[in-house]
Structures are given as C-alpha cells and as structure tokens.
Amino acid sequence: MTETLWTAQDAAKATGGTATGDWTAAGVSIDTRTLEAGDLFVALRGPSFDGHRFAADALAKGAAAVMTDQLPDDLPADAATLRVGDTQQGLEALGAAGRARTRAKVLAITGSVGKTGTKEALRHALGQQGKTHASVASFNNHWGVPLSLARLPQNAAFAVFELGMNHPGEIAGLVRQVRPHAALITTIAPAHLGNFESEEGIADAKAEILEGIVDGGTVVLNRDNQHFDRLAHAAREQEISHIATFGEHPEAGVRLLDADCHAHASDVHAVVHGLEVSFRIALPGRHWVVNALGVLAMTHAADADVTRAAESFASLAPAAGRGVRREIQLADGTFELIDDSYNANPTSMAAAFDVLGRAALGAQGRRIAALGDMLELGLHSADMHAGLVQPIQQAGIDRVFTCGAEMAALNAALPEPLRGGHAADSATLGELVAGSVQTGDVVLVKGSAGARMGKVVAALDALDRAGSHGARSGQEGGHAA
C-alpha cells in the first residue's frame, strides 16, 4: 500500500495556500519526465522554463494535484490544485514542514569533492539499519534541498542531505532549512575557485554548514585537510562543542591504520573511537577509503551501528557517471570503460587517474584518459589544467585525449607521446576516441558537467556489439531544464 506523504489539508497548512479537492500525495515532483502517479507536481519557474506550462501534462500523467501560483489556461476546471503565492516559496514551506514533523536523525554533507559519493555511501550504510531518506542524485541547491525535505517520509529513521554551492552565502540558506543533527565537510579543494579569491574563501563558504547544526549537534571534519584548523575554529565560534574527525592523522577520532588499494576494491583497517574495524570497499581508489572514514564518523555521530556500516561497504556501487565501469564488446575482444563523466576538478581528476592507473589491462592494452574542461577555475584555470600532467604521468597513463578551450592548456603541456588528440567539443572528441580505442584498453572519461562528456561515453557505448547499454538518463530539474 502506498504511504501518504501529504494530504491536501496538511499541504495547505504548511504552505499557507489554498487546496481544491480532497487529494492525497505519495510524493513530490518538479519534473513531468520523472513524475510518478500520485505525486504533487510543483510548477517551478527557472531561467529557461516555466513549470506552469506542464501542469496539465502532470495531471494527465496521474499527478495527485499541482502546486501553482497562477492557474494555467489549459488546466481543467475541476483540477486538484494547491494555490500559493509563489511556487518556489511554497516548495520551501513544504520542505520546512517536512523537516519540522520528522523524528529522523538528520544528517548533512558538503565539501569540495566527494559530496554525492559520500552521501550515497552513508545512505547505503544507514539504509541497512533503518528507513533512510536521502537526496536524489545531486539535489543540493535552492530547489533540490527543499524538494528533498518535502519528500521526507514521516516514519524515516535517518535523513541524509547534500548541500552544494558555487558562491558564498548559498550553503547558509540551505542548512537553515535542513537543520542537521550532524554535518560532514568532506574536504576543501580548488573547486569553483573562479568565484573565490582563495581556497580559504572556499573553506569559509563550506563552513556555513555550521550555522544550521542543531544545539548539541556534531560537525565531522577531515583531520588531514590543510584547512582543518580554520574549520575547527569556525565550529567553535558557532559554539559547536562536538567536533569529530577522520583521516590518517594520529589525533583523528576515526583513524586509518592501513589500506590496500586494488584495481576494483580496497581493503581497509581503521579504528573508530577505539573500536577497530576491518572492511572491504567494493569501489577502487584512495579517495573512497577517505570517503568511508567520513561515513563511519557520521554513522557514529548518528548513534548507528559502526560495525554494520563498515560491512555495508562491500556491496557499495557507484552512482551514474561517477566511476561506473563496464566492458564494451568489439569485434575481436573487449575494452573497459570507466564513466566518471558527471563532474571534475583538479582533486577528483587526480583520484580518477589513480583508479585508471590501477586498472588491469588486456594484452596490448593501453590506459587512455578522455578529458573535458574543468570549469569555474577562473584565473587559475590554465595552470590547473596544465598541472594535470604530473598525476597523469604518476598513474602511468598511456594516451590522453582532450576537448574544450580550457583543456587546450593540458594538451599543450603533455609530452608528445601522451597526446592522443584535442577537439573543440565533446561530440568531436567522442568520434576521435571511438576511432582509436582497441581491445584490451581501459578508457576513463571525465570532465565538468558543462563539458558534456556524456557524449564521449555515448560514442564509446555505441561501439558495443553486445548492444546492452542504453542512453544515460538525464537529471531532474523543472521540466525543460
């Protein structure tokens, strides 16, 4: 039986709006492409779309009701609606009511790198200990956070939210909606550096998450990060007394003792506030070892079972576009594709190169990187792109293909034997890489979301004679976002 998330009366009370019809909603949606029957459809407005245009479509697809701030002309006269003054504010009010009524342990995650992966790992770990609600994909902005709160089931035991930003002040507004019992800052690195004067500015923006932690709550910090002291000082200024830490540092509360990183997994030995745990992470890379330590620290802060959380990592799987691996069948054999195309910055690039460097090759195979622009790096962009040469060489990568205006700096800096080719855009690069790949290769595809490296992934998938790989799904957001 489908659980009721919102009744017409509860939603009207939460938003201060007016409901027509005696409807009940099992979910909340802002996108008719992913809307499920029984959802309340919220007609948001964005820079390139107006959800009111799709309100009638939402009802036709089985929406329980539509939240609007005007009545579209094509809406049936007897349509079930929730009329509010502004749909963005209505969504935020619905999210606030969802947060106010929950008894769940509420957890929030931010950081320059690893937010979504860590959020998914924490959702996976806690989901085996109680009903767990979490942000879908990277729903970490001004509409994603209230939407995730509005979707929070009343009987959840845990709720995990991701908070993102690319300008100062954004996280402060989001965390005041979430009001977490514990918050994790994964690390501070040069992501979105074009919008800040320094990494210290990024650290200060991430530290805004401290402003919404409830009284008596906990902040979890990476003890190995160079900005730890700055973040810990900010926590004390917010009168947060519970500062938990993770990392290799001897003073870390969740401390790494040893890690053996393999091509497809890592074996880890750590101590969690005096309790020794050994576990396997079913995802490769040193960065996943660090993510796991942060998850264990948050598990401890949530008063959940740390041992069970550690055991859960053995069945952890990557999210779409974040390191998903698959074999592509050619006429004379296979090559391996590592789809890490969702996003990129210098730190995550280096982590991905390390994973590629550990990958097992077939006979005569090569390690190939197909890379798109890292965006929002500002005046530092050329140096940071060219600076990828060192981690590329350290990983033993054989060929590098690049696309985009920013990646031209890396192509120019690469030693001639490593240059696979450069293209103006990802579609052209996809053709270039697809024409060069051969049996036994391992191919990494990575770049910022704006670089659209999914086109390179699609070009490689199109080579698959097994025909088992469909088009990658799009991200939710409005309707025509």
From TrEMBL:
Any coiled-coil regions, as ranges: none
Reaction(s) this enzyme catalyzes, per UniProt: D-alanyl-D-alanine + UDP-N-acetyl-alpha-D-muramoyl-L-alanyl-gamma-D-glutamyl-meso-2,6-diaminopimelate + ATP = UDP-N-acetyl-alpha-D-muramoyl-L-alanyl-gamma-D-glutamyl-meso-2,6-diaminopimeloyl-D-alanyl-D-alanine + ADP + phosphate + H(+)
EC number per UniProt: 6.3.2.10
InterPro entries according to UniProt: Mur-like_cat_sf, Mur_ligase_C, Mur_ligase_C_dom_sf, Mur_ligase_cen, Mur_ligase_N, MurCDEF_CellWall_CoF430Synth, MurE/MurF_N, UDP-N-AcMur_synth
Keywords: ATP-binding, Cell cycle, Cell division, Cell shape, Cell wall biogenesis/degradation, Cytoplasm, Ligase, Nucleotide-binding, Peptidoglycan synthesis
First-listed, main subcellular location of the protein, grouped into a coarse class: cytoplasm
Any Pfam family the entry gives: Mur_ligase
Domain Mur ligase C-terminal: 333-448
Residue ranges occupied by any Mur ligase central domain in the UniProt entry: 109-298
Compartment(s): Cytoplasm
Family membership noted in the UniProt record: Belongs to the MurCDEF family. MurF subfamily.
NCBIfam families: murF, PRK14093.1
Role: Involved in cell wall formation. Catalyzes the final step in the synthesis of UDP-N-acetylmuramoyl-pentapeptide, the precursor of murein.
Protein name: UDP-N-acetylmuramoyl-tripeptide--D-alanyl-D-alanine ligase
